[in-house]
Structure formats: structure tokens, C-alpha cells
Q: What sequence folds into this?
């Protein structure tokens, strides 16, 4: 579907996808001009039902949480997947295509507050950000649901869905442009419209304050501007399916899914994404898409062509796992169609050393994840979740 994150998230397709069953990398071709990848392998964590994301509760060295598209969050405790989900909101979720339970994030003070947040497509076709409390280390309290943010979404695709707490302790929310081709809703689409929450990176404090379900930091770039939503932190995004913060530096990397021609990775030093326009819809990567202005547009540091087989870029993480010194400081990412794992060194305005790692080609990579130790996980929509490990 030409980079609409056709993820693939089709249930019938997912059922037929089978990822490589090997638990270590011994095929997939050499990394171009580097020996780094030869030190890395994939270890299977488990198999799940259309998994889309992996994360870990703060302060917890035993547990991983695996987000399944249909509406469940599964617990992997001490290497074993528990039969009972951490949370099951299946009745609330529209799942299929690019819709579903798309992301989750634990509050930085989760060990004391027990708060976490999920992003999902509701039965009403709107996108929901909802707060929950834990009931125990292995179970959430489904009755604790509190709506933080609800967004109208005119199409079934380009839903964004990633949630991340940044180094400032605030919640960042990635939203798609509302779907359809060429950001077609509104006179100039949604991504360039500061009055829309769509096609953006939002930044809020999600905790309730009096009668308000969340608060907007006074330091957000468009606070007080007439016609602009104060929640907007960055804009000009098509479908920022996965973004992340470097746990060592706070730098931001965004994998923004392209349309017909170009996939892209955007990058900003710590705090420098504030108010940034990433160019969509006037620009697709560094290629002019529509003859419209995009004030101050910042170009991506990595672009990939559909002519080369790319279709839906999957943003990842900067590796800080001390067990993987050869990849330390390098950003790992993938693509849903190619499903190879790539690594590059990102810096302001450019990337260097971009290459495919010598690991098995997987099936329909849908996401990456990171735990409290900085270990990186690779998620395959067909079911398997892997961890990057030293050979």
C-alpha cells in the first residue's frame, strides 16, 4: 500500500506470516563493509498474537510487556509468558489493518504511582489515550480506565500510536495525518495545520489536574498562539509509527512512514525538535510532493526509496546495551517489507555508516522495544519477538 504502514496489520495476513525460527543469526548476508553485525544474534523471547510493541515497567528487571494488536498486553516474567494478560481491552478496540491497540508507556514514577498509558483505536473509530492503574505486578486494574485524550480520525490508516515518556518526564504522543492519500483532509491537510492534533508529535503531562484530564507544558512551542493546539510539539509528520529517545543523550529519532516514494528517519538533538516542521505533505523525504510552503522544514537524516524495496519504515532505538559494544551508540531500525535490521550513526543533519546487519531476514517487522537495561527487542507481526544479543 505504498508506505501507508500497510502494516500488514491484516489479521489474515498475520496468521500466514512465519518469521525465521532460528534463535541466532547465521544467514541474511554480510553487513556492507563492516564487521559489527558479526557480533550480534537474535534470541527468541516468545510468540504472540500480532505483536506490535515491547516495553518494560520501570524498576522491574524480571518483566517485559508485549502489546498485541487485538487489545491485550502480555506479561513475560523471568523468560516465560504468563497465561493471564496484564490488560485485556479487546472489547474496546477496533483491530485490523492499521488499527488496534498500538502502544503503551509506563509513567516514570510507575513504581510508586502504578500508572501507565495505552493508545488504541476505539470502536467509535477514534484514537484514544487512556490511563490505567496496576492492580499487581502482573495485572492491571481494568476498572481504573481514565480517558486522557480522544481524537477524531477520518480514515482507518495513518493512526500513529506510539507513546513515549521523554527525558523531561512528559508524555509524547505520535499521531498520523488522518489517513488517505496526500493528507487529503482540510484545505492543506492535517500535518501542516497547527490547529489539528493529527500528523504531529504531541507533548503533555497526562496526569489529571482538577477538572482537566491533562495539562499542557507552558514550554510547548505553540502555547498561546491563535489557532494552534498547545499540545503540538513537532509537526509535518505523515505517520510517525515509531519514535524513540536515546536513553543516554535524550536525542529524538522518528521513523516516519512515506507514501509512494520515500521512507524517512528524522533526528533531533535533545530538545531541538521543539516546534520543528518535518515537511509533510509538501515534502516526502527530500522529494517535493505538493507545491505548497512548509515553513522551516527540516529534512530527514535517512531516506529510503520504494524503488529499492522499502515500503513502511519501522523506527527503532539507539543501542545502549552494554552487552553490545559493537553497536553502542548506533540507531537500529527496519522496514515492514524488507524486514532486515539496519544500523546507522545519527547526528544533526546526517547519518553515517548506514548498513544492514548480518542477521536473518525476518517476516513483517512491526516494531522495536527496549527494556530497563537498554536491551533491544525486535517484533515480528507474525508472532515472534526477538532480543538482540551478543554472539
A:
Amino acid at each position: 500500500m505504498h508506505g501507508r504502514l500497510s502494516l500488514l496489520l491484516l489479521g489474515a495476513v498475520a496468521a500466514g506470516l512465519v518469521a525465521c525460527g532460528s534463535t541466532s543469526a547465521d544467514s541474511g548476508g554480510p553487513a556492507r563493509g563492516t564487521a559489527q553485525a558479526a557480533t550480534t544474534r537474535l534470541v527468541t523471547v516468545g510468540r504472540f498474537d500480532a505483536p506490535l510493541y515491547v516495553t518494560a515497567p520501570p524498576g522491574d528487571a524480571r518483566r517485559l510487556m508485549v502489546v498485541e494488536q487485538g487489545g491485550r498486553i502480555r506479561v513475560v516474567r523471568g523468560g516465560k509468558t504468563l497465561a493471564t494478560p496484564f490488560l485485556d481491552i479487546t472489547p474496546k478496540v477496533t483491530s485490523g489493518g492499521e488499527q488496534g491497540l498500538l502502544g503503551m508507556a509506563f509513567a516514570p514514577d510507575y513504581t510508586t504511582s502504578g500508572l501507565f498509558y495505552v493508545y488504541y483505536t476505539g470502536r467509535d473509530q477514534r484514537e484514544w489515550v487512556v490511563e490505567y492503574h496496576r492492580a499487581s505486578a502482573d495485572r492491571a486494574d481494568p476498572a481504573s480506565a481514565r480517558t486522557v485524550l480522544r481524537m477524531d480520525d477520518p480514515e482507518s490508516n495513518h493512526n500513529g500510536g506510539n507513546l513515549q515518556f521523554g527525558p523531561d518526564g512528559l508524555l509524547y504522543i505520535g499521531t498520523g495525518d488522518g489517513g488517505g492519500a496526500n493528507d487529503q483532509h482540510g484545505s492543506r491537510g492535517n500535518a501542516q495545520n497547527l490547529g489539528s492534533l493529527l500528523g504531529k508529535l504531541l507533548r503533555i503531562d497526562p496526569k489529571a489536574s482538577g477538572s482537566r484530564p491533562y495539562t499542557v507544558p507552558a514550554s510547548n512551542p505553540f502555547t498561546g498562539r491563535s489557532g494552534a493546539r498547545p499540545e503540538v510539539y513537532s509537526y509535518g509528520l505523515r505517520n510517525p509509527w515509531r519514535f524513540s529517545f536515546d536513553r543516554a543523550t535524550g536525542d529524538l529519532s522518528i521513523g516516519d512512514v512515506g507514501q509512494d516514494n520515500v521512507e524517512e528517519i528524522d533526528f533531533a538533538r535533545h530538545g531541538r525538535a521543539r516546534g520543528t516542521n518535518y515537511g509533510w505533505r509538501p515534502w516526502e523525504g527530500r522529494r517535493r510532493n505538493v507545491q505548497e510552503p512548509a515553513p522551516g522544514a527540516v529534512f530527514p537524516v535517512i531516506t529510503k526509496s520504494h524503488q529499492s524495496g522499502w515500503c513502511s519504515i519501522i523506527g527503532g532505538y539507539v543501542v545502549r546495551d552494554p552487552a553490545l559494544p559493537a553497536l553502542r551508540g548506533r540507531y537500529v531500525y527496519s522496514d515492514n517489507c524488507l524486514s532486515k535490521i539496519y544500523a546507522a550513526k545519527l547526528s544533526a543533519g546526517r547519518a553515517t555508516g548506514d548498513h544492514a546487519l548480518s542477521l536473518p531476514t525476518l517476516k513483517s517487522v512491526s516494531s522495536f522495544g527496549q527494556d530497563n537495561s537498554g536491551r533491544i527487542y525486535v517484533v515480528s507481526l507474525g508472532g515472534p519477538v526477538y532480543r538482540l544479543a551478543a554472539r
About this structure: The two ends are 36 Å apart (CA to CA).
